[in-house]
Amino acid sequence: MSAPNFINLYNKYRLASFIGVDDWADRLSYFYSFVIYLTCTMLVTSKTYLFRPIACHMPTAPEGANFKNYVESACWVLGTVPIRSNESMPQQPQSWEELEKSRRLSEFIEFYLGFLMWLFNFRQQ
């Protein structure tokens, strides 16, 4: 089969016209995804920056004027490990390591959500 025959066959069936690459369902999905990511970003950002959700507690704390700020900054950088109210505090380093592997939270999730929101918005244009 030569190239002109192949092109004529392609033009005869026009299969590309049957494929809806960006139909109304896709545009609706982009819009709803954008709205969902925007809502999650706003909720997480407001909770993170307005309501101070990180509570880093230490059983013994050295005296100092800025020690609490230092501990909160360390929690922001290193991440946190949530412990439920019905769980006891781990006493062994191995227990802490297991919790860090399974429950590590990143405090930068709002930036991830914002980036995803930007990608969906960028895709529509």
TrEMBL record:
<keyword id="KW-0813">Transport</keyword>
<keyword id="KW-0472">Membrane</keyword>
<keyword id="KW-0406">Ion transport</keyword>
<keyword id="KW-0812">Transmembrane</keyword>
<dbReference type="GO" id="GO:0005921">
    <property type="term" value="C:gap junction"/>
</dbReference>
<dbReference type="Pfam" id="PF00876">
    <property type="entry name" value="Innexin"/>
</dbReference>
<comment type="similarity">
    <text>Belongs to the pannexin family.</text>
</comment>
<protein>
    <recommendedName>
        <fullName>Innexin</fullName>
    </recommendedName>
</protein>
<comment type="function">
    <text>Structural component of the gap junctions.</text>
</comment>
<keyword id="KW-0407">Ion channel</keyword>
<dbReference type="GO" id="GO:0005886">
    <property type="term" value="C:plasma membrane"/>
</dbReference>
<dbReference type="GO" id="GO:0034220">
    <property type="term" value="P:monoatomic ion transmembrane transport"/>
</dbReference>
<keyword id="KW-1133">Transmembrane helix</keyword>
<dbReference type="InterPro" id="IPR000990">
    <property type="entry name" value="Innexin"/>
</dbReference>
<keyword id="KW-1003">Cell membrane</keyword>
<feature type="transmembrane region" description="Helical">
    <location>
        <begin position="30"/>
        <end position="50"/>
    </location>
</feature>
